[in-house]
Amino acid sequence: MDPDTLSRYREIVRNLILEYSRFRPSYGEIETETVIDSSQDHFELLHVGWHGQHRVHGVVIHIDIRGGKVWIQHDGTSPGIAEELVDAGIPRDAIVLGFRPAYVRQHTGFAVA
């Protein structure tokens, strides 16, 4: 992958994570945390806190850039972030739905690996 494309993918993913970080759960005392590690191409959005007596700690979005592709490792959004990445300029054949089994990916309209 050429450096300009990698830089553009990083910026798109970063902006997406930051956009979703503006949304807070409407219940409990829950913080939204972002993990943006552009040097390792690792991007996450987490919810951390308490809802009454229950601990909340979980990944909402997890995206990695590996082998020239944007891997969606976890997508806890609705309706999903893959189309948002496409709308932002990342081609479908550069997006892998990593949360889907390999044998299913060929039917998703996105990259297999």
Helix content: 25-40%
Stretches where pLDDT falls below 50 for ≥5 residues? Answer: none
Number of helices, where a helix is a run of at least 4 consecutive DSSP H or I residues: 3
How do the SSEs run, as a string of H and E? HEEEEHEH
Care to describe what's here?
- The longest helix has 19 residues, at 3-21.
- The model has no long low-confidence stretch (mean pLDDT 96).
- The protein is globular and about 45 Å long.
- Helix content is 26%, strand content 37%.
- By secondary structure, the protein is of the alpha+beta class.
- A hairpin with a 2-residue loop joins strand 2 and strand 3 (54-66).
- It has three helices and five strands, in the order αββββαβα.
Summarize the structure.
This protein has 113 residues and is of the alpha+beta class. The chain has three helices and five strands.
Topology summary:
Blueprint: H1 3-21, E1 29-37, E2 42-51, E3 54-66, E4 69-75, H2 82-87, E5 95-97, H3 102-105
Parallel strand pairs: 4-5
Antiparallel strand pairs: 1-2, 2-3, 3-4
Highlighted features:
single chain, 113 residues, five-stranded mixed sheet, alpha+beta
